[in-house]
């Protein structure tokens, strides 16, 4: 079964990578889809985020890295996929994802959303927190892979 794990991945975190691998292990095939969101100011360009994901995930079987813009439901139909995976770290995440999942289920032919809970070691990991730590030249190893952390510190002014 093929599923889509979509997000901004700005930047990709260790928590994202955990969800990607667990989704692949459960469903067999995961399309990691980077959202091109022109309304949002991003730290990294879509091309940079795609490069990070391709470098980190390499040629792993059952994982495809792609980018899309527009509605996720339309992208899912384009990819002949009927299931979306979302990661949840907290009840707050669930509350914000619930409405989106319901809308995606009822829009057009609809797609189902499956939630995977964050692993214990990644419950606190977020792109926002990683950016904050990078700004103050903190240790990013808990949050992001090394290549991403180095790029973040370069962009945000932290020292390596």
Automatic annotation (TrEMBL):
Documented EC number(s): 2.7.7.3
Classification via InterPro entries: Cyt_trans-like (IPR004821), PPAT (IPR001980), Rossmann-like_a/b/a_fold (IPR014729)
Residue(s) at site: Transition state stabilizer: 16
Cofactor: Mg(2+)
CDD domains: PPAT
Primary localization: cytoplasm
UniProt family annotation: Belongs to the bacterial CoaD family.
Subunit and partners: Homohexamer.
Protein name: Phosphopantetheine adenylyltransferase
Species whose genome carries this gene: Peptoniphilus equinus
């Amino acid at each position: 079964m093929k599923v889509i794990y979509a997000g901004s991945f700005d930047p990709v975190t260790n928590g994202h990578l955990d969800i990607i691998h667990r989704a692949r292990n459960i469903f067999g095939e995961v399309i990691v889809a980077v959202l091109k969101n022109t309304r949002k100011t991003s730290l990294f360009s879509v091309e940079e985020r795609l490069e990070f994901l391709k470098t980190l995930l390499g040629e792993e079987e059952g994982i495809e890295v792609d980018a899309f813009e527009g509605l996720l439901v339309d992208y899912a139909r384009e990819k002949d996929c009927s299931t979306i995976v979302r990661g949840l770290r907290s009840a707050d995440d669930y509350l914000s994802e619930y409405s989106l999942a319901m809308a995606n289920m009822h829009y057009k032919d609809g797609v189902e959303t499956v939630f995977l809970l964050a692993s214990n070691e990644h419950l606190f990991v977020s792109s926002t927190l990683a950016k904050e730590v990078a700004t103050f030249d903190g240790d990013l190893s808990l949050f992001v892979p090394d290549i991403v952390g180095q790029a973040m510190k370069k962009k945000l002014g932290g020292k390596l």
